[in-house]
Write a structure and sequence with these properties.
The chain is an alpha/beta fold and 467 residues long. It contains 16 helices and 15 strands. It folds into three domains: 147 residues, inorganic pyrophosphatase (n-terminal core) (Alpha-Beta Complex), CATH 3.90.1640; 154 residues, no CATH class; 111 residues, Diaminopimelate Epimerase, Chain A, domain 1 (Roll). Helix content is 39%, strand content 17%. The strands form four sheets. A six-stranded mixed beta sheet has the order 10-11-12-13-15-14, sandwiched between helices. Strands 2-1-3-4-5 form a five-stranded parallel beta sheet.
């Protein structure tokens, strides 16, 4: 069981422990993103070990209204708190919600049924950066003594971008990381914040640096020339070197050069943020092979997301639950397909010069881009636009639903300077009859058809004097 001093959710977690112990027929509904897939997989592993019959289904938020509860216990993971669950409160069903998103209800809202909702917001914790959905499910698994699943809580937090602003895990995420480190599942390394530590050649990884447009951004030749000038070899024999191959001295040299380059490109008010733009904590899963896409938490989360985006969460779940044979090959295939799709859509946006500037923002119409990758494209295309302005992409929701999906991405420097775009996009979306929210640097909204112009104008005006 959970030790009494660990966190204020102990009593609720103990009750959840009892609900699981007593149930013989369990259904899990989990969100279909990296955090949700990892959270659901963790629960499934836990129930496997407990010998509990269970089914799992990964769903998008708009599918909740179509669900029916026929099982003895229904568990919602990484979703449920922000949705109306009135219809699930019946005398015949028991419901457990493990979520970290802002809740619609007060704690213990449902009194006529066995309904338990555990959410960090009930205990004065912020679910946007202190704990993820996978972290919540790990806390339950921990009550059964399954400390070895702590690495999945770390993966969930990284996949949910909970370290994106500070460069490190905080709150209960830090406690989960401590469990992982103490049990030799994860190593926390303060390193350069460059994606692709294990799998990308260093000169390629550097070329994707996109928070600020530098001479090396999207220019692999310039990256090679810079590394040569710094005396940092790009190869070990015939093999390209990755960031993880660099010595401490080489990383220090590269850090100093990036600081110098960035200091020349950013306005004075941003200079003090440069070090944390370049450095942060990286997390390595020690049971995964070096140079594997599963070794680094950021790269692993990308692989899980690729499965989500192409509607094959079951492949990611098989890998997360330990299948390193066929499922890993399938995951690699999906990752390659995902990269091809992103490259095609990137070219489509750039070749048509679809990025349209406004006073404080820039946007593009992603009408030919799937709604579940519009945010990814926005983040990638930011390096081709004006980094001093957030970029907004919009496209049709699809799946027979009316309305538009809107995604925003921005340089971390804008968020460091105090703008929380997740809060702003929620307020603007509500003004045009939509909904929205998210993180400071990555957020989104759903807005009605025909409201794009009003949404963009209100958003642009809202930023006057802020950036």
């Amino acid at each position: 069981m959970v030790e009494s001093q660990e966190n204020p959710m102990n009593k609720a977690l103990s009750k959840a422990h009892e609900m699981v112990e007593k149930a013989e027929d369990i259904k899990i509904y989990s969100h279909i993103d990296c955090d949700g897939i990892t959270a659901g997989s963790l629960l499934s592993l836990m129930l496997d070990r407990l010998g509990k019959e269970h089914e799992i289904e990964f769903i998008s938020l708009d599918k909740i209204d179509d669900l029916k509860t026929t099982n003895e216990l229904t568990i919602f993971s990484d979703l449920g708190s922000g949705q109306n669950l009135d219809k699930f409160c019946t005398s015949s069903s028991k419901v457990l919600v493990l979520d970290h998103h802002p809740p619609l209800r007060e704690m213990n809202h449902y009194k006529k049924c066995e309904f338990l909702e555990i959410n960090p917001h009930f205990y004065n914790m912020d679910g946007s950066y202190e704990i993820s959905g996978g972290g919540m499910t790990y806390l339950l698994a921990k009550t059964f003594g399954f400390y070895d699943l702590s690495w999945m809580g770390v993966l969930s937090a990284v996949g949910d971008m909970q370290n994106s602003l500070t460069g490190k895990l905080q709150g209960l995420n830090q406690d989960i990381l401590t469990d992982s480190v103490q049990n030799n599942f994860v190593e926390s390394i303060n390193d350069l914040s460059i994606y692709g530590r294990q799998t990308r050649p260093l000169f390629v990884a550097l070329s994707y640096f996109g928070d600020v447009n530098l001479p090396i951004t999207n220019n692999k030749t310039e990256c090679i020339l810079m590394l040569n000038k710094l005396g940092i070899p790009t190869k070990n024999g015939r093999k390209n070197r990755s960031l993880c191959d660099l010595s401490v001295e080489e990383k220090s040299t590269l850090f100093s050069e990036l600081v110098r380059m960035l200091s020349r490109e950013v306005p004075p008010k941003y200079v003090r943020y440069i070090p944390k733009l370049i450095c942060g904590d990286s997390y390595e899963f020690l049971n995964e092979k070096k140079y594997s896409p599963l070794r680094d938490a950021s790269e692993f989360s990308t692989a899980v997301n690729a499965c989500s985006r192409h509607e094959h969460p079951e492949i990611a779940m098989r890998v997360l639950k330990g299948d390193r044979a066929l499922a890993l090959d399938d995951m690699d295939d999906l990752a390659r397909e995902h990269k091809r799709y992103l490259a095609q859509k990137m070219d489509w946006v750039r070749e048509e010069e679809r990025i349209i500037p406004m006073n404080n923002i820039q946007y593009f119409n992603g009408s030919e881009i799937k709604s579940n990758v519009i945010g990814t494209i926005a983040g990638m295309i930011l390096s081709y636009g004006d980094w001093k302005k957030p970029i907004i992409g919009f496209t049709e929701i699809g799946d027979g639903k009316d309305g538009l999906k809107v995604s925003l991405r921005c340089s971390r420097l804008l968020a460091y300077n105090g703008v929380h775009f997740g809060n702003l996009i929620r307020k603007v979306a509500e003004k045009v009859g939509g909904t929205g929210g998210g993180h400071s640097v990555a957020c989104g909204a759903y807005i009605p058809e025909g409201s794009t112009e009003a949404f963009l104008n209100i958003f642009d005006e809202s930023l006057n004097g802020m950036i």
